[in-house]
Design brief:
264 residues; 50% helix; 10 helices; Rossmann fold; 7-stranded parallel beta sheet; alpha/beta
C-alpha cells in the first residue's frame, strides 16, 4: 500500500533506533518519533540515503498528554496509514520510590503506559477499517519477575503492557490485527546511562548483556509473523522459564547473582 508506514516511538537511540534500521532494511516507509528533532533529522537522512526508503520525522515529548492526538492528526493530514505501530519509548527512574517526586512518577507512567494506550487507541481504528495492522509493544523480562527494590514501578508497568497486548490480541486477531509484546532482558544501549541506572547495568554478568541490533531483529521477525510474545535470545527464554518454575527462595539466590542490586 503506497501510503502505509511503520511508526516508531523513541526512534533516536537503543532498541528503537535498531528497529527503525531493521524495518528500513525490509523497505518499510517510516515515521520516526522522539524528543530530539536534530537527532531525528540525522537518523532520517541516514536511513533514506542508505536504504532508499521514504521516511518522515515527528518531534514530540510523550510526557505531554496532547502528544498522541497531535501525532495522530499529523499522520491523518498526510494521509499516512500506520500499519505497524511500534510503542518503544521509555526510560527508568533511578531513585528509590520514596525519594522520587510524584510528578516524576506521573510522567513516567504517562510515557510508558498512558501514551501507549492512547497511541494504540488512535491508530487501531484505522487498522480496523483496513482489516490489517501490527502493533509492537516493547516490554521487558521485568514483566515476569517479582517486584524489585529498585525501579519499583518499572516491572508493574511492563506487566501491564503484556496484559494490554494480550487483550488486544483477544479482541482483534479475528479481523487481521496482531499485537506482539517484546520482552528483552539487559540490552546494551544508552538507556541505563540516560536513566541514571548505569551502575546496576555495570554489575550484570556479561553473558546477560545483549546487543540492541540482535534484539531488534528478533522483535521485528516476531511482530511480522504475529507472535503474541517475544522473549529475544535463548538466554532470556531460559531465564523466563526458570522464573516461572523456581520457588521464590531459590529465585532470590539466583537473582542476586544475575541481577545485582534489584533484590538487595
Amino acid at each position: 500500500m503506497k501510503n502505509s508506514y511503520a511508526l516508531i516511538t523513541g526512534a533516536t537511540s537503543g532498541i528503537g533506533l535498531e528497529i527503525s534500521r531493521e524495518l528500513a532494511k525490509l523497505n518499510y516507509s517510516l515515521i520516526l518519533v522522539a524528543r530530539r528533532e536534530n537527532k531525528l533529522k540525522e537518523i532520517c537522512q541516514e536511513l533514506k540515503y542508505k536504504f532508499n526508503i521514504r521516511a518522515e520525522i515527528y518531534a514530540t515529548d510523550l510526557e505531554d498528554p496532547k502528544s498522541p492526538e497531535k501525532l495522530y492528526k499529523f499522520c491523518k493530514e498526510k494521509n499516512y496509514f500506520i500499519d505497524l505501530l511500534v510503542n518503544n519509548a521509555g526510560y527508568a527512574l533511578p531513585d528509590s520510590f520514596h525519594k522520587t517526586p510524584l510528578e516524576a512518577e506521573e510522567k513516567f507512567l504517562r510515557v510508558l503506559g498512558i501514551a501507549v494506550v492512547a497511541l494504540t487507541k488512535l491508530f487501531i481504528n484505522d487498522m480496523i477499517n483496513k482489516k490489517k495492522g501490527k502493533i509492537m509493544m516493547i516490554s521487558s523480562v521485568a514483566a515476569f519477575t517479582p517486584p524489585s527494590t529498585i525501579q519499583v514501578l518499572y516491572g508493574p508497568i511492563k506487566t501491564f503492557i503484556n496484559r494490554f497486548s494480550e487483550g488486544l490480541n483477544l479482541s482483534y486477531n479475528s479481523i487481521g490485527i496482531t499485537s506482539t509484546a517484546v520482552c528483552p532482558g539487559y540490552t546494551v544501549t544508552n538507556f541505563h546511562t540516560a536513566s541514571g541506572v548505569q551502575d546496576e547495568m555495570d554489575r550484570v554478568p556479561s553473558f546477560m548483556k545483549k546487543s540492541a541490533p540482535r534484539i531488534a531483529k528478533e522483535a521485528v521477525q516476531a511482530t511480522l509473523i504475529g507472535r503474541k510474545t517475544c522473549v529475544p535470545t535463548f538466554t532470556y527464554k531460559l531465564i523466563v522459564f526458570l522464573i516461572k518454575i523456581l520457588p521464590k527462595s531459590l529465585f532470590w539466590i539466583f537473582s542476586k547473582k544475575m541481577a545485582p542490586g534489584r533484590y538487595d
